[in-house]
Amino acid sequence: MQNSVFPALSSSTKRFLLSTSALSIALIGSPAMAQTVSSPANEQTSPPKSGLPDTDPATAPQTTELDETTTEDIVVRGIRAALESAKDIKRNADTVVDSITASDIATLPDLSVAEALGRVPGVTISRFATGGASPDFPSPEGQGNLIRGLGFVRSEFNGRDAFSANGGRVLDFSSIPPELIGAVDVYKNQTADLIEGGISGTINLRTLEPFDRQKPFLAISADNTYTDLRKKSSPSGSITGGSRWKTGIGEFGVVASVSRSKLSSRINGWQQNSPFPRVLDATGNVPQTSLTGAAKLSEFTGVDPSRILGTTPGFQLRTNDVDRDRRSYYGALQWKNDTLQLTAKYIRVEEDTDSIERTFEWFPEHDTGTTAGISNLSVKPGFGSDGVAMCSGAGGFPSNPGDCETLIPIRGGLMESGFVTNRIDAWTGAVGSPVGSLGIGRTEESKTEDFSLNLRWQPTERLLVTVDGQYTKASARQRQIWGGFNTYLDWQIAPDLDNPRIAFSVNPAHRFNPGNTRFSGDSDANPLASPTSAGDLNGATWQFAADQFQVGKGDLYAFRADTAYDVSGSDGLAGWFDSVKFGGRYSERSQTNSEMALNWGAISPAWDGRGGYGVVGTFQEPTKAAEAISFANFFRGGVVEGPNQTFVFANSALLNDYSAFRKYLNAEPQLANGNYNWVPRGTDDGSKFGVPIFRPEDTSNITEQTANAYARLDLKHEFDNGMSIAANFGVRYVRTKLRSTGFQAFRPFVADAQTPAFADTDGDGVLERTRTDDAESRDDPADFLPQSIAYGAQAAVPISFKQTNENWLPSFNLRWNVDSQQLVRFAYSKGLSRPNVQDLRASQEYVVTTNRVNFPPITDENDPLFGIDRGAQNITAGDIRVNRGNPLLRPTTADSFDLSIERYFRGGYFSVAGFYKSLSNIVTNGDLALGTTTLDGQTVNIIYNGQVNQAKAKVKGIEVSYQQFFDKLPGVLSHLGFQGNYTYIDSSTTPPANGVDSDGDGNVDDQTTFFRFGVDDLLGQSDHILNVVGIYQDSALEMRLAYNWRSKYLTTYRDYVTGNPVYNSAAGFLDASVRYRIGPLTLRTSVANILDTKSKARVQIDQSGQLYDRFSFLNDRRIVFGILLQY
To answer: Which residues lie closer than 8 Å to 864 by C-beta, 6 or more apart?
Structure first.
């Protein structure tokens, strides 16, 4: 009996002719060379008859079986070859699989695998730099993928573990160049032999192997990418070659590839606040108020809601310039004889990214002092809400727990435009609102290397043994530098996500006056020069600086062995049995992650009058500290109006160089005597990256050992009526051992600053009373809480956690071939996804919070104590907050069901699939009570805030896919093709739990852990996803027009600025590519984001679900021109 699935290894020619394997028609980073493929006249693919499953993880999905009937020769290449191959993989897969091939990736205008995967049915791309769904950090390239709305994705290289050393489990697909990939398989359900870890799916990246080609080959490509916002060109290129030859001891093959790709891009972003309630005065304007803290709520006491206006004076202008340099190296060596095949591979991917982000912003939610006035109002009537919150809890006021959740009704309409002015810091001579200009310099470096060795032994026609070994090591590091300035301005604003308009002005009365401050001992009592424009260095003060470091490294050893035995050919009931397969795998992953939170400190803020404001124009070398950046072309122009279109930011040369940044701040004389309290967390070693200073509690070491075994039985049967079935069922046993070590740290209280009772408040040399005599003895936690102070002063101590989890994962897959063209598929599996490695870190920090009770305010101006600081009436311990990792997290588990009807025909297929998933133990942010302790005579709760297992979710939906080439149309129309898919998803999850309310007063202890409106949507999940691709291909010309659209989706449960949930709006992106072949030379061009689509978002503002505009981001259009030479 001839095994039709796994023929003898020496029969390579027959295998090549009988399979449209993905890799046999693909060249890394280039379209396939023309191949004459023998196919049936009606392209009818029969069900498998017998044989062993392919147990090589790198090649398993490639099996394609064809009836050896009368055939005709057709030439398959390029786009068509890729889609034909993907169709065959999908049809003959043992479970639910969709694929794309290297030809497909290289043809689409996609610069990374992540972007190309966005074309696969049910797969969406994340366009945010945090990989998840953070709405504040968009990315110039796709950063990650969700499968059917879920992010529990397992990533593989050639069927093996692949990861980045960034604390997560998934390989950063945006870092993988298309030139490296032969094909990508997306598994949406499981078989017992697939490695566990992806309950939403597994994405397997397959590289080209030497035996995928029959002859020596060489391909050289060169491209140039122009980005139209950045107005820069970036080169890329690759060289790929391979050969195979026969010797007396067997056949050898080798393939090698090297590529380098650069990209310079820009992102523009406009943000605005949600409707902020303010009271209209008798003139129809919003007056400036001096209410602060909780007193702001009194503005609405007794006011008719018809006089309360929804105002939108806040804004953010953001631009981010990103420079990415990606390099990849790949080599593979194969050898085989009649019974053995040996494959060795080496993969190395490196990526360096430098970016300069600049934001120019002011938001009323974070306005802690005097509230701005708004005049020249244009109001949209009819807008209203039963109640909106005034602040986010992450900044601004509240003074008391629950203040942010006080709902203010709005019935006075919505501000469409207005003039915003402020005198919040008038005591310094400043007039206008303090607009923040923040510059952030980021440097990111990552490297992943993978070594693998695979041995396949087929001693008999029925037995196949595969042994596979792998070693992977990865490293990543990131550094951020923040430089924050203030510029005092007024502005006229008309907020809008498509066409916002804002015009800034400098108030002529604005003039810094160092002698008129709340502090004594000023070095200069003379007013400074008034700034003449928004870009004048004399109008900008250096407020703060911050740094942040993250360094990670990890490695993984894995070994697996699989045995498959062909039991087909028996009569009767035993004839149903086709093959048995069993095996085991062991892996050990070790990862060390060091990370510090953003380390913020004051440089010379405006409220500091003790030696200088840090006014940039007065610096010794001001142009080294700052630069004026024009926003005239922001959003392609027209947003920033009037003469003030240039703003002051920290110099990019400093933001790009940590050592230079530190040296400048240390050397600037103006900052020497100010309120400079920033303590850098890195050393100046002369390098641009710097050397981070990690405390013991900043580092965690995690070792994870997994051992698993599986058994799988395959059934096949052909019925007399022409129908047939193919099924597999099995079970996988998984044992996971985790050891996490780190440090338990305690956060010390800030030292009690000694402030005298008398001070010179007006610079006349006379000391006036500012505090009572006993105020200093009762103004700090140290004056009330000695045990709490001692608790926070403890040294960090080592801690270690161990845990073991065991899981049994059954699976069942059935393919019922109704006839030669139509089949019905069913799949069920139980799966698991382990928590992110960074979430399992043992290091934790314990922080004692305090509650301060002030004396009742004195309102009688004749009272001798009016305006005098009396200290605190009492300060008590609140609770102990524990943050950082949770090494006791358990895996998330899911039951997955799929049912599909698929019809295949020459040139295409049509399929309809339904799916359902039920998930448990989802890891999400929440609070967890750990116990109590006694401090200063009080029972204090110990509360962990971070990642916990507490959510469940259900996901169901349908996928419709259609693909066809219209060969039967006349003339040039016969070269047309179409590819389309639509996915509908209906999901819900447990709403995020609010934080702990330890005192039972109805308010959570930490306002930032309060989640409004009970939103039960899944992050990043759209209800509707659509891909439509039009294709033209003849013997020389290939053209593709691709449109990708998705409906709105939740990006965060709690926005930092508003405190509310934010939804990205529906959006579609149109891309195109053209290729023309002239012999061995291919000319190619592509355009991404032809429609210049903005990524917009809206914020939910009240319990009714009402949405309002929140932000809009615009990416470059990318235009690529290139050539490909192949032999």
So the answer is: none
